[in-house]
Amino acid sequence: PRRVVTGLQPTGELHLGNYFGALRRCVQLQEQGEDVMVFIADLHSFTGRQEAGERQSRTLQAAAAVLAAGLQPERAVLFVQSAVARHAELCWLLACLATHARLAHLPQYKEKAATMKEVPVGLLLYPVLQAADILVYRGTHVPVGADQAQHLQVAAQLVRTFHHRYGRAFPTPRALLPDDGSDRIRSLRDPSKKMSKSDPDPKSRILLTDSDDVIRLKIRKAVTDCNPQVTFDPEGRAGVSNLVRLHCLARGLVPEEALCEAEGLTSAQYKEVVARALCECVAPVRARLCELAARPRLLHEVLRHGAARARRRADEVYERVAELTGLPPRL
Ligand code: ATP
Ligand code: MG
Fold first, then answer.
1. According to the UniProt entry, what is the EC number of this protein (predicted)?
2. Alpha carbons 21 and 299: distance in angstroms, whole number
């Protein structure tokens, strides 16, 4: 059976990259009748620094964003990663199968580690915990941004190694890659980078809580190039192409249709069109997010229910793992 699993870190307010690249796709998969599990990856957020209170409030806010995007807690499972201890338990077993050399070679690790004086071991283990997040539910399909493709290869490798060493316990998880570019939304300030929560420049991303005015301002300030024409060429003209992409995702268009609407407009004029489309797309999500943020008890209740379901599923898988590895059964 297919099972979709994906996570979001509580490292900041969610942006359009998270929305188009992860949240909205999960909701679409839910609508298609897939078995969808979404978790707030609070354990992952420990690879960076955060105050306890901040972690807590962002966790709740991320959960609210998932629901605001349309995930239905009766149909899909929404929970907080740390509420299911099996993630960390399986992570240890997998860490003992992963090699230091392989992990230390991953570009994301190298990039982050290069900026640090003291590199925490957790940063190295990040993809291993990610593999555990998926495998602990026997996840088969993972709708993530393109930035996570290499980490999924690590997960696939760990599945092979585990099978070799102990026997079959997990299907090989696969990245679900969309063909609309929603998995690779670029920064508005530096289109060579992806849009990120952790980017120090707040104008680099549009948040789901941004007002129409703020959205318009950020799009107006979006970096393009000196060519005022609107064309779609993600490699050669990343900036303006990112705007075309956002326009398409907001309105459900293909790039040719978006370019039609841009006909006769300079890129500065086209930005107004894109901003309008994004405002319309974000408004209902923002409104629901605002409502939900005011209902922490409801959110806690949803997360508690989700964690109970997730724990049951993880326990089932772990039983098989225990049997294969010689750990005592604990069901
Ligand atoms: P951080 O900078 O803290 O890593 P992030 O913006 O990368 O934050 P994550 O919580 O790491 O967000 O990722 C959540 C999900 O959103 C993942 O599935 C990730 O692949 C996806 N995602 C993140 N950025 C983008 C983007 N620019 N375009 C498409 N998907 C994205
Ligand atoms: Mg990230």
1. 6.1.1.2
2. 23
Task: Give the pLDDT of residue 331.
Answer: 60
Task: With a cut of 70, say whether residue 39 has pLDDT above it.
Answer: yes
Residue 194: active-site member: yes
Which residues face 40 on adjacent strands?
8, 80
Ligand nearest to the CA of 194: 1
Average per-residue pLDDT for the chain: 96
Q: Structural domain boundaries of the chain?
A: 4-177+296-325, 202-291
Q: Is the CB of 11 under 6 A from ligand 1?
A: yes
- CB distance 18 to ligand 1 below 6 Å: yes
Annotated catalytic residue, options 194, 203, 218, 221: 194
| Cβ-Cβ contacts under 8 Å for 166 (sequence gap 6 or more) | 321, 324, 325
Q: Closest-lying ligand to the alpha carbon of 147? A: 1
ipTM summary value: 0.98
Q: Which atom in ligand 1 lies closest to the alpha carbon of residue 14?
A: 6
Give 199 Cα–ligand 1 centroid separation in angstroms. 11
CATH homologous superfamily of 202-291? Tyrosyl-Transfer RNA Synthetase (1.10.240.10)
- Integer angstrom CA distances of residue 164 from 95, 168, 308, 323: 15, 8, 32, 15
Q: Is the CB of 22 under 6 A from ligand 1?
A: yes
Domain 4-177+296-325 is classified in which CATH homologous superfamily? HUPs (3.40.50.620)
